[in-house]
Write a structure and sequence with these properties.
CATH class of chain A: Mainly Alpha
Largest sheet of chain B: 3 strands, antiparallel
Number of strands of chain A: 2
Order of helices and strands of chain A: HHEEHHHHHHHHHH
Radius of gyration of chain A: 20 Å
Shape of chain B: globular
Helix content of chain A: 40-55%
Number of domains of chain B: 3
Strand content of chain B: under 5%
Order of helices and strands of chain B: HHEEHHHEHHEEHHHHHHHEEHH
Oligomer: heterodimer
Radius of gyration of chain B: 28 Å
CATH superfamily of chain A: Cytochrome c-like domain
Shape of chain A: globular
């Protein structure tokens, strides 16, 4: 016990590595190498996600457009340039994806999901998931995140946020919010079970994999005009 | 002859005309050119002074358009919404004159003559010179106009009554431009002008009474209205007085947000990011000279605390705090609270940790934070938030521990106090 000892030992300062890993240590308490649930919220893993996507999220958290108070406070005094460095650091980290989870969806439901993934639904102006998220659903560099290797709880939370408001504020047009509102609750439920059951197949695709018109539709995430160069 | 003479006369006249026209041209263009130059430098000076006065700090909402207002300040008197000060004619200051602006800044009255709430720090801005106020106005009139209607203030009765503001002003508002103290150096006077006027440091660093007025004009420290932070005294050696620091150390803290002794956090880190880092080296130094003169000198470098006997229950409380410290804090702040000065602040002997108000240390543990990104510290290190990682009782134990370990001496902190530190974005 060291209470009330009046002499402070002349201890050498703590050694601190001059690395990015050390600088983002404060992220790792919540965003370790696994998705996890805390006392108040769900903490998705951030390693291995595309750099532009991560940067957009960081900037939006800082500027209050994606709302979570502790993130807003944590990032308050950081610049776009530094946030980009952090985003690129996390994007480059290797990540061991979880094994696919099993689901108990009916074969007819699975077929309907497969249609949404591959073709969308023109009658509801729903694009195919794969048009933006890549043929492998692993995302497209640098702005579009993958859909596989994410837990059901996280997907359900995101869909809920988009459909009911709460995740994004003021970033309009917000393409995923519009798409999520057009899906039925049954489709959302099925997607949150089906996606985590798919085997992860590698890396996000390169930018030229983006289907024509997708960038136009989702221009809010591209036209944020950040400094990431593809 | 006559003809010739007349021709000569005409020629002379023409020459005179030509010459005077030429002269007029030179004078005219020179005058216009000089006016344009004066305007430009006035505007440029204004841009700098607007930074120093940190108008954007309040008049820009999080993620919002610059100077378009809309930031909400939650106070015990109600919600104040900052105004749009871009030159938009309908929703901003587009129809204001220099005189109107001076009336607001110096007298605390709006264009329509209404008294302004002292949430707008005219109580400090009144010390700004007319020349500087005009320059700030000239700059603000040059920024991109933004059409943005902000919500009305939502002020609780009876504070919404103008006659109360009249009384408040009569009692608490001392109007007047900063008057230099001829017994002090020019540098000191410049520093005082920056700290008391443009920088409006006293707006936070003074205690406020129940009417929201500064208790005195001394920066003796106080809770910041509308936030969960405590703005420490700039005089007391137990708080943030810098009488015993070198000028270089003070300048380093103001310009980079961190030095060997301290790191700025919360609203102060934001002010370094938004404003102080952009001050000229001369102005930073002048501020440091003045702040140093305010601070108490270190008369008794190692005050001897009379340690009260510790009941077993307190011993246990602190012992639990110690084990939490070992698990969550020691990695960066060190086994002996020695930290890594300039990166992870030492906790042993840290005034912010021991201060009579534990608010800032509570806030730091709840929400963490990064030192501000500045030219002098472009890639700062950070502290994670713990508000959702460990429970309030654990936070109160670990804070009580660090306030009393390694020769530190401070009051114990209760879980209720931790909860009071929650909320508020700034």
């Amino acid at each position: 016990m060291l209470f009330f000892t009046s002499v402070v030992a002349a201890d050498a300062p703590v050694e601190v590595a001059d690395t990015m890993a050390e600088r983002v240590k404060s992220c790792m308490l919540c965003h370790g190498d696994q998705d996890k649930t805390g006392l108040d919220a769900y903490y998705p893993r951030i390693t291995g996600k595309p750099a532009g996507y991560l940067l957009n999220q960081l900037v939006n958290f800082r500027d209050g457009k994606r709302y979570y108070q502790p993130m807003a406070i944590l990032l308050e005094n950081l610049t776009d340039e530094y946030l980009q460095e952090m985003a690129e650091y996390f994007a480059a980290q290797p990540y061991d994806y979880p094994l696919p989870r099993s689901h108990a969806l009916l074969p007819t439901t699975v077929q309907e999901i497969q249609v949404l993934i591959d073709s969308g639904d023109a009658t509801r102006d729903l694009p195919a998931c794969s048009a933006c998220h890549g043929a492998d659903l692993m995302g497209i560099k640098p702005f579009i995140p993958g859909l596989l290797g994410l837990p059901s709880a996280y997907l359900a939370a995101q869909f809920g946020g988009w459909r009911n408001g709460g995740i994004m504020r003021g970033q309009t047009p917000d393409c995923m919010s519009e798409i999520a509102k057009k899906l039925s609750q049954e489709e959302v439920n099925a997607l949150t079970l089906w996606l985590p059951a798919q085997a992860v197949s590698g890396e996000p695709a390169e930018q030229d994999a983006l289907v024509e018109g997708a960038a136009e539709r989702c221009k809010s995430i591209f036209s944020m005009g950040r400094i990431i160069t593809p | 002859m006559i003809e010739l003479t007349s021709v000569r006369c005409v020629n002379r006249l023409q020459l005179v005309w030509l010459f005077s026209g030429w002269l007029f041209g030179i004078l005219f263009f020179a005058t216009v050119g000089a006016t344009a130059n004066v305007m430009e430098t006035k505007q440029q000076r204004g841009a700098y002074l607007t930074r120093v006065a940190n108008c954007a700090g309040c008049h820009t909402a999080r993620g919002g358009a610059a100077y378009a207002g809309g930031r909400i300040l939650n106070t015990p008197f109600g919600e104040f919404v900052t105004s749009n000060i871009t030159p938009d004619a309908e929703t901003g200051l587009g129809r204001w004159s220099e005189e109107d602006f001076w009336q607001a800044l110096h007298h605390g009255k709006s264009k329509d003559g209404r008294y302004l709430y002292p949430a707008f720090p005219y109580t400090e801005y009144t010390r700004i010179s007319r020349q500087d106020a005009d320059a700030i106005f000239s700059y603000l009139q040059s920024v991109a106009p933004v059409r943005q209607i902000n919500p009305e203030h939502n002020i609780h009765a009876p504070y919404d009554k103008q006659f109360l503001l009249f009384l408040w002003r009569a009692w608490y508002f001392k109007e007047g431009v900063y008057q230099p103290d001829s017994t002090k150096s020019q540098e000191w006077n410049r520093g005082a002008y920056l700290v008391e006027g443009l920088g409006h440091c006293n707006a936070c660093h003074t205690a406020r009474n129940v009417w929201g007025a500064s208790k005195d004009n001394q920066p003796l420290g106080g809770e910041i209205i509308g936030s969960r932070w405590y703005a420490p005294s700039l005089i007391s050696i137990q708080q943030a007085g810098v009488g015993h620091w070198s000028i270089e150390d003070i300048v380093e803290l103001l310009s980079t947000g961190i030095n060997q002794h301290a790191v700025t956090s919360g609203p102060m880190a934001t002010i370094v990011r938004q404003s102080l880092q952009y001050l000229t080296a001369e102005d930073q130094r002048a501020m440091a000279v003045y702040l140093k003169s305010l601070g108490e000198q270190d008369k008794n470098p190692q005050p001897k605390h009379k340690i009260p006997p510790m009941p077993e229950v307190v011993r246990q409380y602190l012992a639990r705090g110690e084990s939490i410290y070992e698990k969550h804090c020691q990695d960066c702040h060190g086994k002996f609270g020695q930290g890594a000065p300039g990166i992870y602040p030492p906790l042993a002997g840290n005034r912010a940790v021991m201060m009579s108000s534990p608010r800032n240390v509570i806030r730091s543990v709840l929400y963490g934070g990064y030192a501000p990104v500045t030219a002098g510290n472009p890639r700062p290190y950070g502290m994670p938030p713990y508000q959702h990682i460990i429970r309030d009782i654990e936070i109160s134990q670990v804070i009580s521990y660090i306030r009393n370990a390694w020769g530190n001496f401070g009051s114990l902190v209760s879980p209720d106090e931790i909860d009071q530190g929650r909320g508020s974005e700034h």
